[in-house]
């Protein structure tokens, strides 16, 4: 993907992060010449309409928000089969990175970050959007000091009771009790997640931990979030109360939306500052309730009643919210915040004990509960290992488990074609019921083009084979008069057949990781003519050839006993072959013909044809027809080497 041009506009530079649904890359917008973050949906999810809808929903949700604390969305589209989302690029870190580096944050840092987070949430809630996946990983801290909320991939339009659909979404450590027990979420679910984040910033740890997601979910559903000061005694009491208010188990007891909690956060910050300043006599102290009720949280105007040096925050005179029980009257007056908190805690504890009793009873009677196996942590399914199975059998196994199966083809050099390679998510992973699982089926080795190997040095050819994702096979050598030593003459497949087409291997299709064997030139066979047998043998051995004495033949040009030539055993000569040495016997002997009594004109023709070097009187050629041969030396019938001198005597 690095270096790819998307939709003719966005040049991908590097990868930033990878999530369960998409990967985020740093890219350059060539049209506007600016850096952007481009979020690309995973290829195996591209065919799933629900994932595409969720991906597009993120773009629409974020695009509806124009707020300095929300990551801007610039563009969304489809390039071939690839869905993408173009967002503002913020160089920096996430809140999760900050918590990993520093553990516990100071009160001032916590207030600054929460002010920005709640500002972004307030804008989202006002626009009718519930984030549903608020967590430190989605809070971006830019290098220039900006703080923004990102990743609205799980967001959904707000209604009175927004359902999650088929499975729980978001991260289990930040899910609200109503989302775990009833599968519903609204703006107050985001407030709960914000409260958990605030607790984690103040204490350096999450309020509920466990070895299994079910344990964490059970605590969220049944236990009250503890005060941060129980872990970090330096946390002010006002922040304790704000965290408890945001993380109340009953949504009715929380702030109604991000705006309500943001207003209370700022009032709490003012109260803390005023309380601190009061010790120097500079300002009056403002005393606030431990946690505002939803009546105050939803009020447009809040009044302060002056009581002298100390001012008390009073409740606005409004009718109780319709979702509260009619009995909540005097118990909710601002005069008794401690009593109200104690009563709320007692109610939560009674509810927790009741829920625990029901769960234990159902487990004892039925071996499990509908909550656990339906919408609770029990809906998390473990993907079995189906690698090596037939696709139909593996799909049947997964569908019986309760997931939605799609098939995806993938080349493999180790898994036979038509056999399951594995799944995505992989075996052993935990997924929600009805989650999408991709069944990856092998198509066998990929068919890839070969590079040019013929005429290339064998070292470069071996590297080219590996770079092209093939395996270097065996190497054989053959002597060649047309190519220098080390040059590739041909390439062969696993069966030994040539891979070349019209003298070239470039572009020839071959299976991935299959062996490519090379035929390499060993150079030319050295010339050993006119060498002694020993010298010729040593010369041939120096290039890996053996030598054996062969036939002896007459030669007019090669000295007797020397090598005339080395004869190959076949048309193709390989190192280790034995060459036959043809040895000279010297010039071939001839018998002096009998030309005595013959006219010189005839005798001369016979002797010249026999190859003799003639010596005769000069006058014989004047009238050769009248001259007669009288004798030869050597005499007729004598065997002499071809080319020997023959003296002829004539008479006139």
UniProtKB/TrEMBL annotation:
Residues 318-331 have a biased composition (Low complexity). Residues 318-339 are annotated as: Disordered. Keywords: ATP-binding, Kinase, Membrane, Nucleotide-binding, Serine/threonine-protein kinase, Transferase, Transmembrane, Transmembrane helix. One of its GO terms (biological process) is negative regulation of fatty acid biosynthetic process. This is non-specific serine/threonine protein kinase. InterPro entries: Kinase-like_dom_sf, PASTA_dom, Prot_kinase_dom, Ser/Thr_kinase_AS. Residues 10-267 form the Protein kinase domain. GO terms for molecular function: ATP binding; protein serine/threonine kinase activity. Residues 378-443, 444-512, 519-585, 586-652 form the PASTA domain. It comes from Agreia pratensis.
């Amino acid at each position: 993907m690095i270096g790819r041009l998307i939709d003719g506009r966005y040049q991908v530079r590097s990868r930033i992060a990878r999530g369960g649904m998409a990967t985020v890359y740093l890219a350059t917008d060539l049209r506007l010449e600016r850096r952007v973050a481009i979020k690309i949906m995973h290829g195996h999810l591209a065919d799933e309409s629900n994932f595409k809808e969720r991906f597009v929903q993120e773009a629409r949700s974020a695009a509806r928000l124009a707020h300095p604390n929300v990551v801007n969305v610039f563009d969304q589209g489809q390039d071939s089969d690839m869905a993408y989302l173009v967002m503002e690029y913020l160089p920096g870190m996430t809140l999760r990175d900050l918590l990993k580096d520093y553990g516990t944050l100071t009160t001032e840092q916590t207030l600054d970050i929460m002010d920005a987070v709640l500002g972004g949430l307030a804008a989202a809630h006002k626009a009718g959007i519930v984030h549903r996946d608020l967590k430190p990983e989605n809070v971006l801290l830019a290098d220039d000091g900006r703080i923004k909320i990102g990743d609205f991939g799980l967001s959904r339009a707000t209604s009175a009771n927004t359902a999650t659909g088929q499975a729980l979404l978001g991260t289990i450590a930040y899910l609200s009790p109503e989302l775990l027990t009833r599968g519903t979420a609204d703006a107050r679910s985001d407030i709960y997640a914000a409260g958990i984040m605030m607790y984690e910033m103040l204490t350096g740890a999450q309020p509920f931990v466990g070895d299994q997601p079910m344990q964490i979910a059970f605590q969220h559903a049944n236990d009250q979030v503890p005060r941060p000061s129980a872990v970090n005694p330096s946390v002010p009491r006002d922040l304790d109360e704000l965290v408890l208010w945001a993380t109340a188990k009953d949504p009715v007891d929380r702030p109604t939306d991000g705006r309500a909690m943001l207003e209370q956060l700022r009032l709490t910050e003012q109260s803390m500052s005023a309380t601190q300043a009061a010790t120097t006599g500079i300002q009056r102290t403002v005393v606030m309730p431990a946690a505002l009720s939803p009546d105050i949280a939803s009020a447009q105007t809040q009044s302060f009643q002056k009581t002298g040096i100390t001012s008390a925050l009073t409740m606005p005179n409004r009718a109780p919210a319709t979702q509260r029980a009619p009995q909540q009257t005097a118990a909710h007056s601002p005069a008794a915040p401690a009593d109200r908190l104690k009563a709320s805690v007692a109610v939560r504890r009674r509810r927790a004990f009741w829920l625990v009793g029901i769960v234990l009873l159902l487990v004892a009677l039925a071996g499990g509960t509908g909550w656990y196996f339906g919408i609770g942590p029990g809906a998390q399914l473990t993907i079995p290992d189906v690698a090596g199975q037939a696709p139909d059998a593996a799909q049947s196994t997964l569908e019986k488990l309760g997931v939605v199966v799609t098939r995806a083809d993938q080349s493999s050099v180790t898994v036979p074609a038509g056999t399951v390679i594995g799944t995505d998510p992989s075996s052993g992973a935990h997924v929600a019921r009805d989650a999408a699982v991709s069944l990856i089926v092998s198509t066998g080795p990929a068919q890839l083009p070969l590079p040019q190997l013929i005429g290339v040095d064998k070292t470069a050819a071996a590297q080219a084979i590996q770079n092209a994702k093939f395996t270097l096979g065996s190497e054989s050598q053959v002597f060649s008069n047309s190519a220098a030593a080390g040059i590739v003459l041909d390439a062969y497949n696993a069966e030994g057949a040539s891979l070349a087409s019209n003298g070239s291997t470039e572009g020839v299709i071959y299976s991935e990781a299959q062996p490519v064997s090379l035929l390499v030139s060993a150079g030319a066979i050295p010339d050993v003519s006119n060498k002694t047998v020993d010298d010729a043998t040593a010369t041939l051995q120096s290039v890996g050839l053996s030598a054996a004495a062969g036939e002896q033949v007459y030669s007019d040009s090669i000295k007797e006993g020397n090598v005339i030539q080395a004869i190959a055993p076949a048309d193709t000569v390989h190192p280790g072959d034995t060459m036959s040495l043809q040895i000279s016997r010297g010039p071939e002997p001839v018998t002096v013909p009998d030309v005595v009594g013959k006219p010189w004109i005839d005798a001369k023709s016979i002797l010249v044809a026999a190859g003799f070097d003639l010596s005769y009187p000069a006058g014989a050629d004047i009238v050769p027809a009248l001259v007669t041969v009288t004798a030869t030396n050597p005499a007729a019938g004598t065997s002499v080497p071809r080319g020997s001198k023959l003296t002829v005597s004539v008479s006139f």
